[in-house]
Design brief:
Elements (H helix, E strand, L loop, with lengths): L13 E2 L31 E11 L5 E6 L9 E9 L11 E9 L2 E6 L6 E8 L5 E9 L7 E9 L3 E7 L8 E8 L9 E10 L6 E4 L5 E3 L2 E8 L4 E8 L5 E10 L8 E3 L2 E5 L1
Parallel strand pairs: 1-3
Antiparallel strand pairs: 2-3, 2-9, 4-5, 5-6, 6-7, 7-8, 8-9, 10-11, 10-19, 11-12, 12-13, 12-14, 13-15, 14-15, 15-16, 16-17, 17-18, 17-19
Amino acid sequence: MHLPYKPFLPLLAVLVFECVLGCGGTVGSEVTTGPGTPDPAYAYMTGNWQMTATSTAQTTFSSLAGFINESAGAAGTSHATTAVFQLVPGSCFIGEETLPLSGTVNTSAVSLRSFSDSGQFVTITGTENTTADQFTGTYVVNGGCSSGATGAITGSKYSPLSGSYTGAFPSAVTPQSISMAVTQSTSGNGKGFSPVSGTATFSGFSCFSKGVLQGDGSTVIGSQVQISILTDDNQIVTLTGTSDLAAKTISVTSGAISGSSGSCSNGDLQPFTFTQN
């Protein structure tokens, strides 16, 4: 059964951390490298995160997803960090696509405060674990229509999609499968999404046998994955789903083929699962 495409942004709101590298980065633009030398003994928060917010006073947002990029530096020192909220219409930040923040990461302590948005400020504080793949903290909103909103935040860093994945359609009349060789970008695109590049091969499809992932349609944010493949006969295969924390599987909940011509036809693809080879 085909499940319709759903946008990545949750129903209430999405909080996207887009932490660029110190003075070398620009909020809302492509992540660039800042000053400092990476410390091999220190675990950085850099990567793709999925977080959940639980309100304790008022409700402002419930889900957080995006890219964190902590500036390079020695362990035990303060690493300059910036961030960006990506918001959905209907929140107190209506009319604003992103909300920039700035702050620091110092060993395990994380502190971020937003710039003013209609007189409203969001402050996030918390701690990361020793391997920098779990986060626990709180948020406070001061000013604006959400003034006084508070809550708790917990999150996990997702491993990047990297390597070879294969998925087969379990109930297809003719055996069909898709294999991909993919690489997830080590930086965000300025709005919290991580681009994914690579190639794909198809087995059991009559009109195409291979394709290339499209950069403007292949992204990861939190657990959400979208893949757009331009096939060798100029059709587009679009896949939407979620990955597990270790990026060992991608559960495709919605898929479609479009742009057909001649004897080929457009259509939906049934749900299936990619497994890392």
